Fold this protein.
Amino acid sequence: MNGLKQEKIKETLNATRKRRKRQIPRVYQLKLQNLSKKDRKKLDRLFLEAKWLYNYIIADIENRLTKDSWKLKQVEIKTPEGFEKRDINTLSSQMRQGIIERIKHSLKSLKKAKEKGIKAGKLSFKSEIRSIPLKQYGITYKISGDRNRIKIQGIKKKFRVLGLHQLIEDCEIANGLLVKKPSGYYLYVTCYLQKEKALEEIKKKQTRQPIGIDLGIKHQITLSNGEKISWYVEETKRLKKLQKTLSRKQKGSKNYFKTKLKIQKEWEYIQNKRKDTLNKAISHLKKFFLIAIQNDSIKGWHEGYFGKQVQNTGIGGITARLKRLATLIPVFFVDRYEPTTQVCSFCGHRQKIPLSERTYKCPLCGKEIDRDVNSAKNILKIAVEKLKGEGKLLKTLPVDCGEVTPVEWAIAHGEAGSLPL
Ligand SMILES: [Zn+2]
């Protein structure tokens, strides 16, 4: 009987894997609406139990991480008065399994890091768990689109959500993630769309132009056609003010926590704005049918002079998004050692130009051009030439139009992108 069951699970997994090859993931964020005090309490209980379970297992991984640990109905927690028992009665078994899988996953990553010689510590206790995995749609959570309600396992009430219309019809709903943020509770839903359908959508809006991209440290994308897209949102004055206020409050006092919450909310607001501008930038880029970008140009910055500045801009976010975009549109990554800033995009003359110089002035052909536009043009040129050389682009492709044979598409990993795990 058991063997049969195992066999069946294996079959289902294989079928899913096959299906996923023709699909692309998309994550939608739904906010739970009109929560009463009672609702919040119930949701908070889920997150609290998740924390108890997590910390309990972490405290003695060798003995507590077993194949039966998802059955735990009671755990011990450490309080100032000593150890006390706590019941796990709201967190469903699938949710518990989700938490345990997360622990296993973290252990694996730690092991991998250690194997690579990276200094990695142990898993540490959490003072708060901000997200709960909801595996198996239909069991841990359900969506009823006609009534704009979602149901979460273990909670009787159905929550109202906005934004269900974003969920495209006939997409396959998969895992969810229940997330607690300063501004409220959210359900992140992963959906799988048919690749062909997503492509159709893109193609409707697509021009036949290829484009080169130069990523700048001044928070912007420069395109080879001269367009500049700013995708970075500065920290607000309010945030700076709040941080100052916090430093004057007595740590641990009521006002301290009040200000801290305000800071978290402001942070969330900034992050949302950043995400929004990034989304807009990406949807603009979808209009081009070939994108060329310099690979790992960011890596160099991390090590170099601008290291810190680049890290703070979250530029990694955009490369991650571009990598995902690469499953839909041909994205060509130009080697990072190509001297794209030094070469004149008109005549090919090469010269060193200082970082402070914002205009490329060519002594050979006399052209003057914005430094970043010049390098975006070069990036595109390199990509087009390379692809032509490999026979992946027909020779007639100029920089504005032409016939194209399909470019080998890179496969991007990581479905949810920047989920707050
Ligand atoms: Zn020149």
Summary: Residues 206-389 form one domain. The chain is about 40% helix and 20% strand. The chain has a mean pLDDT of 81.
